[in-house]
Amino acid sequence: MSKIRSQHWLIILMIALLGINITYPTAVDVPRFNSNTYTSLLLTVWVALLYFGIRKKIVKKILKFDWVAGVIFASLYCATFVASNILNSNYLNSGINVLFNLLSWVSWIIVFSVTFAFIRTCFGTTIPKITGVPKGRCLWAILSIIWVVSIIYLLPGQISWDGLKQFCEFEGTHISQLGFTYSPTNHHPWFTTLFFGTLFNIGRSIFGVNFGIFTIVVTQFIISSIIYTYVIKYVWTTVGKIGGIITLALFASPIFSSYIATVDKSTLYYAFSAWFYLCFAKLYEGLNNKTWSYKDIFLYIFSATLAGLFRNDAFLIVIITTVLLIILTLRSKQKLFLALVSLVVILGIHLGWNVILTRDNVVKSSPSEALTIPIRQLSYVYMTDPDSFSKTELKTINKITPLSKIKENYDINNGDGLKSLYPSDTFLNSASIIKDVVSGKKTLNTTSNEKKETVDYLKLWLSAGIKHPKQYVKVYLGANSRYLNPFIMYEPGLFLNYYSSTPNSMPIFIKPSWYNEYHSLFNGHVREKGQQVLMMLTMFPPLAIVGNPATLLWIALLLLLILLKVKDWKGIVFLLPLLIMCMLFTVTSINGYTRYTIGALAASPIVISCLWKKRYDAYQMMKEK
Predict the structure, then answer these.
(1) Which of 467, 481, 476, 477 is nearest to 382 (CA)?
(2) Does Membrane count among this protein's keywords (predicted)?
(3) Which of 208, 301, 381, 595 is the most exposed place for a label (fewest CB within 10 A)?
């Protein structure tokens, strides 16, 4: 790139820097230019690095594809900010605000396009010489020591809200004040309930309640540390020391350590997600070899089964991934046979488990769990344009979400309020809902009539979506703004000092019979200081950026666009399970909740390093030619 053209780009980037400092405050009367000095400094450094890349000819050419990528990311950025303030449309109606939005959009297109060109050019071009890979036991020891230091103040371990509910279901806790006795449900996977309950009973029988909780924490610690050690070693072996150290730092951080000390179904799911993708990567890398080892197939099936059993929607990811594996092996009889066997075995295990659940009268999760986005979309149309529905359609809505309660329960960022209006409920997150179940106003097990009403509701949701597509898109973007835009407010949402053991601090309806015997090892002052230190580390910019729920989706989207540009179709197939994980975030109840994203975050170093190495090998072959 010539000196004159670089000077032109200096002017373009300076104007773009002004535009990307336009903000989207919740109150539209607030000045729209960024007043945060720290943020402005970071944006200035970003643009300066882009200009440096142009001057040093790292970025030699901005391709049409780069501009397409820029439009995609700029549109995500601006649209999610506008939609996040969904009940205020001034950003689209006020002339001056529309001009600000347009300048912001164009400026971000420029910045994102040059950034994508920069990343696309550098992706996979260099890998340090792989020497001196640490032994697995050394990496495990480092990770374990850091974890012990960071979680010791939480001992014997803490229990999440969901964890307490699972303990209540496991022991069949009776709440005399409410006249209610817990029964088994699959709202939180019943397999994990049995797993934790059994471990707790073993530990409790030895040294009491605290040791029962500690037994679960130790089990989580051992399983997770071993799996993450293998991931660290894989990355180190694949792309070198820098990647290995970054991955070690990621798993050693409070993002993961805070969950290790927490009794919750998610903790082991994160580890099993990483293990599953590690096994998938091993098979993917062996596609060009003559045979696959039976050990690798067994580990793939085992890890896939555990990932599917520890989170209900993970089974979908497991099945799609295995189908993709079958597609990749169509030209190899041996690999195709083993991939088909994997699918049959995984399906067989899950179908068999469902038979066991039915036999043991385990209540299935309420359909409302899968309806949080449709309910928010249809409810928004009802609130903004009630006259667009006929009397029959209003009756259909009223059966699922009583019309008189929609407005007071509507929250674009949290679907739990509307979800609780559904006629059946397995979440039971308040005493009033439990009273409704006891009195018969709500059901625990969804009836056939409720299922029919749900089908009618979904039909209406589809027809209303055809009439009001803009509103549906607006709600989807607003309800997922923190999953789709890493620049929107970041809330770490970690399990740090999640629940104390003070008996009176917890609602009566999630207290197992032994709860009053559960006590923290350290007092509240120590736990508070430990929490402050770990939270400070979590909010340190590099870790805060990596831990941001939307960062992961943007990384996956970046990888997809790079692979599309180089026409690496097999690489896209390898990336798809991670993309599906990211898309599943956007149909969950709480906007930007990190708890939903950490499983995919645990798998991301495997994906990035595998694709980086694959691109590097292709780049070297191209240079040799």
Answers:
(1) 467
(2) yes
(3) 208
**388-420: per-residue pLDDT in tens?**
999 999 999 999 999 999 999 999 999 999 999
Q: Distance between CA atoms of 99 and 86, rounded to whole angstroms?
A: 19
Residue 234, token pair as written in the block: 């894989």
pLDDT beyond 50 at 2 = no
Cα distance between residue 462 and residue 624, in whole Å: 55
> Quick one: pLDDT band at residue 504, thresholds 50, 70, 90?
low
Q: Cα angle at 473 between 421 and 376, to 5 degrees?
A: 5
Q: How many residues comprise the chain?
A: 625
Concatenating the DSSP letter of every residue in 113-128 gives: HHHHHHHHHHTTS---
**What are the residue boundaries of the structural domains of the chain, listed by start?**
3-122, 136-364+490-621, 367-467
In this structure, are residues 111 and 51 in contact, taking their beta carbons and an 8 Å threshold? no
The whole-chain average pLDDT of the chain stands at 91
- Estimate to the nearest angstrom the gap between the alpha carbon of 422 and the chain centroid: 25
Structure confidence by residue, pLDDT tens digits, 532-543: 888 888 888 888
Contact 322, 343 (CB under 8 A): yes
pLDDT tens-digit map of 233-254: 999 999 999 999 999 999 999 9
Instruction: Give tens-digit pLDDT for 285-321.
Output: 999 887 899 999 999 999 999 999 999 999 999 999 9
**pTM assigned to the model:** 0.94
Range of lowest pLDDT (91-95, 255-259, 360-364): 91-95
* CA end-to-end distance (rounded Å), the chain: 25
Provide mean pLDDT across the span 574-584.
95
In terms of C-beta density within 10 A (0-12 exposed, 13-18 middle, 19 or more buried), how is residue 447 classed?
Answer: exposed
Q: DSSP per residue over 276-334, as a string?
A: HHHHHHHHHHTTTSS---HHHHHHHHHHHHHHHHHSTTHHHHHHHHHHHHHHHTTT-HH
Cα–Cα distance between 67 and 48 in angstroms, integer? 19
Q: Which amino acid is at 17?
A: L
Q: Which of 495, 475, 476 is nearest to 594 (CA)?
A: 495
Mean pLDDT within 128-149: 92
Q: What burial class does residue 437 get, using C-beta atoms within 10 Å of its C-beta: 0-12 exposed, 13-18 middle, 19+ buried? A: middle
Find the mean pLDDT for residues 168-182.
Answer: 96
Report percent pLDDT > 90 for the chain: 75
Q: Are strands 262-263 and 158-159 parallel, antiparallel or unpaired?
A: parallel
- Single-letter code of the amino acid located at 84: S
Q: Please give the single-letter amino acid code of residue 551.
A: T
* Ramachandran angles phi, psi of 400, nearest 5°: -95, -45
